[in-house]
Amino acid sequence: MNPAKPRPNLWLYGYVGVIFAFVFTPIITTVVFAFDVNRYPSLPMGGLTLDWFRQVLADASLSRGVRTSLSVALCSAVVATALGFAGAYVDYRYRFLGKNLYLALLTLPPLVPVVILGLAMLTFQSRIGLAGSVQGLIVGHIVLCAPFALALIRMRLASLDPDIEAAAWNLGATQLSTLRSVILPFCLPTILACLFLTAAVSFDEFMIAWFVGGTNETLPVRVLAMLQGQVSPRINAVGTLVFGLSIALVLISQLFNPGRRGRTQN
Amino acid sequence: MSVTMLELDNLEKDFGNSKAVDGVSLTVKKGEFIAIMGPSGCGKTSTLRMIAGLDSPTSGEIRLWGRRINEDPAWKRDAPLVWQNYALFPLMSVRKNVEFGLRQRGYPSARRVRKAEEWMERMGILAFADRSIDQLSGGQRQRVALARALANEPEMLLLDEPLSALDPHLRIRMQAELVRLHRELNITFIYITHSQSEAFAMADRVVVMNGGRIQQVATPQELYRRPANRFVAEFIGGNNLFSGQLDGSGCRFTTAARDILVERPSTPPVGDAACLMVPADRIELDNHCRGSGNEIQAHIATIEINGSTATLHLESDAGEELQVQTSMRELDTGRYLVGSPVVARWQAQDSLLLSA
């Protein structure tokens, strides 16, 4: 509307800057002190070292935690994305009574406070003898992650012409072949994005893992246990590694996700 | 042209408690160009979707070459559809779109490529075979949609308002092209439209639908000269309609404002209330009464120029509205000006009694 370049609003810049500082200062502090020689973080820093990282990598309980976290993240990402796709496809394809209720139920889990979710899962899983197993943990993370996949894939499918499937059938493609040759290729970038995003959600998740994981400690659970025992700069090193991995997963997810780009015609 | 190909037998489609299609029966011959026309919600698209197998009829039968096909799934039918919004596959090139049907039918790849190229060439889109769909204009997408539908060489092509998204110039060009294509391919076209100019320009026979029912099936000319009922006469346009009653003699039609002389109908119209139709092009204008035929004194309210013809909208002294079609040549004489008094005259045999 205004062709002249708008004057920068210093207040707005300042405000945004403060918010970013508020969010990122703790993270930056963690990362910076992970390289500090001093046992107790203090300024000025004593000097740079990679010792804490070495200790972390040498710690068997931590590497076990990483392995558990990664395998849980991988399994839940795959299943949650598959379920999310199925849920979104049903929404795209069918119109039925109670569809809003169906969608509300599907998107509910992340809205439930995780304490309640974790506790409920523990109660339920101990009844069916699943509590304390890696499988139980994976199931818990699937419940939490699937709605994220559903939301992303649903958004992608919303930009697909609702007549597209009928057009494929009309040209001789069976329902299965239509799904394979039209719908899945269209959703593929989003599906990849969902795999990474749900992996990140699972990898970061603490509460459910703490409640139902039992002796299978994921990395976040292990880190908390460490924190309770001692204050060691190793925590900073672990935090830096976890932060790096999570950010990487989310960024990769963003790279794949076309969002509302690549809309179909009309 | 004389072999029956497709029969719709008392087809009905319910959506919840409303009937989208209510007892449609129609016989289509091989190679015919049929237009199904009607206002939105008249059931024309539902009928087409049932022929394509995308909806299943609530009752009634669809027969192809005499065989019931109600239960055949869409992918087993040979009735490709050209969609109103084209419904081309996104993220696929033009070539991939055109090849889609051939691939599904299991053509070996060399033949598939050759056939797709043949059709792209024929539709004039071979030059952008490897472009993606998003890079095409509306007219080009239209051609891709046609090539994709025709690549399997079907015996019947369904078209659902295919020209409605194009601008008027392109629409006229595509009309001519569709007619040429129909003649060359000699396959059956079933064409859905709400535009009578499209239907009349292309179709052998036109089906007029309203409220889920067929109102009339006729050639464009028949439809224009002998509409079956008031709805058709109004939908076609260009007709003056009077509500009233036929008196006992059968030669006089009484409206609120006047008595009109008519020819005695061979079969009296159904129902009490009837409707008299006087085509706009059958009314002549004069500057004074001569006492022959039906004459109405009126003045010119507005003049609408439609190209080489013009429509004069008259308002009679009794408050009736009339439309009279005349040529631009007549208009050029300068006799007809807005507000000038005229006498509209027509002969009894030029009017037609319709059931309301």
UniProtKB/TrEMBL annotation, chain A:
SUPFAM superfamilies, per database record: MetI-like
One Pfam family recorded for the sequence: BPD_transp_1
Keywords: Cell membrane, Membrane, Transmembrane, Transmembrane helix, Transport
CDD domains membership: TM_PBP2
Chief location: membrane
Subcellular location: Cell membrane
Chain segments annotated as transmembrane: 12-35, 70-90, 102-124, 130-153, 182-203, 235-256
ABC transmembrane type-1 domain mapped to chain residues: 66-253
Protein's membrane topology: Multi-pass membrane protein
InterPro entries recorded: Bact_Polyamine_Transport, MetI-like, MetI-like_sf
Superkingdom of the source species: Bacteria
PROSITE patterns attached to this UniProt entry: ABC_TM1
Family: Belongs to the binding-protein-dependent transport system permease family. CysTW subfamily.
Record's protein name: ABC transporter permease
